[in-house]
Amino acid sequence: MSRLEIRSEVTGNVWKIEVSVGDHVDAEDVLLILESMKMEIPVEVPSGGTLTEFLVAEGDAVEEDQVVAIIEVDT
Amino acid sequence: MNMSVRFKIMIVLLPSLLVGYVYTPLQPGITMKAAVLHEHNTPLEIEEVQVSKPGPREVLVRPVAAGVCHSDLHFLDGSYPHMLPTILGHESAGIVEEVGSDVTYVSKGDHVITCLSAFCGHCDKCLTGHLALCQSPEVSREADQEPRLHQNSQPIHQFLNLSSFAELMLIHEHALVKIREDMPMDRAALIGCSTTTGVGAVFHTAKVEPGSKVAVIGCGGVGLAAINGAAIAGAGQIIAVDMVDSKLEIAKALGATHTVNASSGNAVGEVIEMTKGGCDYTFEAIGMKTTAEQSFQMLGSGGTATVIGMIPVGTMVELHGVDFLAEKKIQGSNMGSNRFRIDMPRFIEFYLSGKLHLDEMISKHIKLEEVNDALEALKSGQEARHVIMFDS
After folding, report:
1. Which of chain A's residues have a Cβ under 8 Å away from the Cβ of B40?
2. Would the pLDDT of B264 be above 90?
């Protein structure tokens, strides 16, 4: 399995985390929802895998290109 | 992105996702009709949606009119990401139906304009006068609270804290401004976004000086408002740039002194020639890399380009570095850097005194059921603006 960093495309605040460490996620699943300039912006996973680490919590500020989570990609 | 697949996955995963939603069982709420976006690039569906009861600092508004704005298209086609399902629409005026227990600013029956620039009133941005940049989450409901909008016990994600393509809007008390009752509601609705964004960019973001040379790229609702704003601000030369002649004609009626049809392919050269060396202020009101770069290229020494349009996420803008030696500047503008509770009543006075031209901005009045036709018309770029009128 390979390690994949999930990054935020925009600056914002983490409003809601949708999955937990250890969960299996499929491509395009929503990991978390950011609030940015009044928008609810989903951060999705590009490919399926297992969520191994969350680097942010609800309420945290996130910068553009910041790594928010790590997944181990399915082989 | 295959949204169909994603939607199906979401349905399959709903039981597990619901673990995350720990709000108390949904209250019955009020059932209303709304235009729901379930998947990107699909028509909005007119469906029954439930709206929650107002919380302590919330206001239930019955919209009378809602503008169909080009920004809605960005979210419809997914060029700006947003959680789905949602109810688009963010430019409206209406009447207060019910207020929460702590609301004192408005009461039932008041006429209001809604605004997406909901402000908390006590963060650094608010306290330094930059209310439009407030990022406080407290104007939304918290993740573990019952959502403001729901359908069949599933949340509907409120769009920009408003969602105005609906018969009712439940919003924070800091997302509206009280207005005089003799203001026509369809005109008032436009002030809720396009007018405030365009005129505000001229007044507040760029601070256009009387007598200066201005170019506005894009003559949709926001660009036309910027042209009108430049005229009110006393700009000496106002050049409207678009590829549709009918829009350039409207621009002249709103104050443009010159027009450039960009389909000629040399809009930058024509503007520089007309201004004898470039503009003092330019405004980009489309949201494209090319036109953002052109707004900078049209500047004269010391000029300022203001990008109002929503450039898709991930798009990079390239500038010729040597131009900075000529003190050329480029900046963004969000919702016209507004202080909307001050600005919007002033814009109403401008309209009623004949300075702000809103009548020309409305091309058609429609019903909620016709919203998809209005969005299609926006894509064509041929018409100014459709305004939804709700049954009273």
Report:
1. none
2. no
How many angstroms separate the CA atoms of B246 and B295, rounded? 22
Asked if residue B255 and residue B210 are part of one domain, the reply reads yes
Chain A residue numbers with beta carbons less than 8 Å from the beta carbon of B2 are 28
Asked, for residue B39, whether it belongs to a domain, the answer is yes
CA distance B181 to B388: 19
CB contacts of A45 in chain B (<8 Å) are none
How many beta-carbon pairs under 8 angstroms link A with B?
56
Residues forming a β-bridge with A61 = A13
Please check whether residues B301 and B380 belong to one and the same domain: no
Q: What is the CATH number of the domain that holds B159?
A: 3.90.180.10
Asked if A73 has any chain B CB less than 8 Å from its own CB, the reply is no
CATH code for the domain in which residue A60 is found: 2.40.50.100
- Phi and psi torsions of B221, nearest 5°: -55, -45
Q: Residues 29 to 68 of A: which have CB under 8 A from any B CB?
A: 29-30, 33, 35-42, 58-59
User: Residue B28: pLDDT band by 50, 70, 90 thresholds?
Assistant: low
Would the CB atoms of A35 and B137 count as touching at under 8 Å?
A: yes
What is the total count of domains within chain A?
A: 1
Structural domain including B310 reads 198-333
In sequence order, what DSSP letters do the residues of B139-155 get, joined into one string?
GS--TTSPPSEEETTEE
Determine whether the interchain pair B17/A38 forms a contact, defined as Cβ–Cβ distance below 8 Å: no
Q: How many structural domains compose chain B? A: 2
Q: Which of B5, B13, B80 sits opposite A39 (nearest CB)?
A: B80
Judge if ipTM > 0.85: no
| Pick from A45-49, B48-52, B167-171, B369-373: least confident | A45-49
Structural domain containing residue A68: 2-73
**Phi/psi zone of residue B211: left (φ > 0), alpha (ψ -120 to 50 degrees), beta?**
left
| Residue B41 neighbours by CB under 8 Å, 6+ apart | B3, B76, B77, B78
